[in-house]
Design a protein that fits this description.
about 300 residues; alpha/beta; 7-stranded mixed sheet
């Protein structure tokens, strides 16, 4: 009980500091961060290369669609025969998709579209039973993370589980947001206890250029329910113009190929918060996540144009 009271006191003492860290970016920081977030990119220096990279990006997404169709109609039926047990099928499926995404990232590197660097690839490969939370600057963030994490599970926006090319993969392997809150929590806990990692973007959607959306409490609630730690991952690198929210497809970084620089931060344990009421605990863990992942705390991982 003494340890519990000490933890509670420490949390309460730090609460105001955490709230400040989780608050909106202030005006002074805006002046520093805005150039880093590429609101005013320099003009295109080499138009032939620029348009070649745009074509490479479009071809990459075409390949992605073809690959998704082949996995759905060819690979999955074969895997169902090889792994009739649903849990074994999902485990094999997660590893298979990770390998396919690794090939996809390799293809984009070879064709000059993008390249991926990670702080410690071996550490990513050995992650187990944890909630991965990440900022969400571009549409390919989940692809990059799954390519690094072989046992990655994730909560997927409901529209991907609808009538489109990805719905077979999403419905059979991942957790769509169209499920009830209770079912999502149950499936996340089950997946974590099976040794998988759950990938969640706390913003709920891609970041808007110039800043991040308010963080939702879902990741914190899953960690509290399951008792599993949270591992924050910062998606750094350069300007992802053309892959951000509301960007036109026929745009690209005006100077360089896309660089995805992925950094694993120190894990956040739900243990110190477990004696608090659930809403208060979820709020404080979410504040801590924001403190770790907000752009102003990761300036060294954001690359300027040169």
């Amino acid at each position: 009980m003494a340890n519990s009271e000490e933890s509670r006191t420490k949390i309460e003492d730090n609460d105001s500091e955490m709230q400040m860290a989780a608050g909106p970016i202030n005006e002074d920081l805006d002046a520093i961060i805005e150039p880093k977030l590429f609101e005013n990119p320099p003009p295109v220096r080499n138009y032939p290369v620029y348009w070649l990279r745009i074509c490479s990006k479009l071809l990459s997404f075409g390949l992605f669609g073809i690959g998704a169709a082949l996995i759905s109609v060819v690979a999955f039926p074969v895997m169902k025969l090889l792994f009739p047990n649903p849990k074994r099928f999902r485990k094999a499926g997660h590893h298979f998709i990770s390998v396919m995404f690794r090939f996809f990232t390799f293809y984009m590197t070879v064709t000059g579209c993008s390249y991926l660097t990670a702080s410690d690839r071996k550490k990513f490969r050995t992650l187990k039973s944890c909630v991965i939370v990440a900022n969400h600057p571009s549409i390919l963030d989940v692809v990059m993370l799954i390519s690094l994490i072989p046992n990655a599970d994730c909560i997927v926006n409901a529209y991907l589980g609808g009538k489109n090319i990805l719905h077979i993969i999403v419905q059979q392997l991942y957790i769509p947001t169209s499920l009830s809150h209770e079912e999502i929590m149950s499936r996340c806990s089950e997946s974590l206890h099976d040794g998988n990692c759950i990938i969640i973007f706390p913003e709920g959607t891609r970041s808007l250029p110039g800043g991040q959306h308010p963080y939702k409490k879902g990741a914190a609630r899953i960690a509290l329910t399951s008792g599993c730690p949270i591992v924050p991952v910062y998606m750094g690198g350069n300007d992802k113009r053309g892959l951000r929210k509301h960007d036109p497809w026929l745009t690209y970084n005006t100077r360089k190929m896309y660089h995805y620089a992925v950094y694993m931060k120190d894990e956040i344990s739900p243990e110190p918060f477990k004696d608090l009421p659930e809403p208060a605990a979820a709020k404080r863990i979410t504040q801590k996540i924001h403190e770790v992942l907000c752009d102003e705390a990761n300036m060294e991982y954001i690359e300027l144009y040169k």
